[in-house]
Sequence to fold (252 residues):
Amino acid sequence: MTTIAATIITKNEAANIEACIRSVLWMDQIVLLDSGSTDGTLEICEKYKVQVTKTDWPGFGIQKNRALDKANTDWIFSIDADERVSLELKNEILQTINSSSDCVAFKVPRQNYVLGKPVKHCLNSKSDAPIRLVKKDYAKFTSDIVHEKIIPDGSVGKLKNTLQHFSFPDLASVLQKASLYSTLGAEKLAAQNIKSSITKTLLHAIWSFLRMYFLKLGFLDGWSGFIMALGSFEGTFYRYAKLMEMDNKKDG
Fold:
């Protein structure tokens, strides 16, 4: 039988990691890289057959590539701590990796949950379908510190069943992720020698809200859609504001 591993990266994911691990216990190997959890994440992992490695934090792309390198199976499924593999997706994955398909990677549509409710429009499974299932040694993540992507060396297919993504369980998580990703996003822009300004900060933030709420039909998702649009505005605003702060420190 063809073998498969799950790869996970964590830092302080005690609220999510157990459900994530339990959803992939059927896989032949579970590889987890942790970059300094202090909330009990590692203690939870000890309850299960998980290959844990403690590491530094080089950014999302490099960290996920480290996890890929530690897997020693035929196929690898990259999963985040706030995601879950359903029974239907499990069966489709097993059928796929044991088929004669020429594809070396597969996109997996995600069903996003915001404030406990499924989002049907602004983050729907048609537009949100990242590559997650890859053949060993046929794909790598970009080295981006944030918003990393898998670059496959071959044909890409797409699965039908969705990966459950509990991205924002409450308002606090929206604020926390906006803060984290805006800092990483600012660092990424700075590395690309992109400059910011008050005008650019406001325009990008406003456009981010309008795109999420109107163009992506977030208004049809009710309160959850509005929160997603507001979070997108906030994250974008602080990303460019932090970039501007970095520029000012260099000039000063």
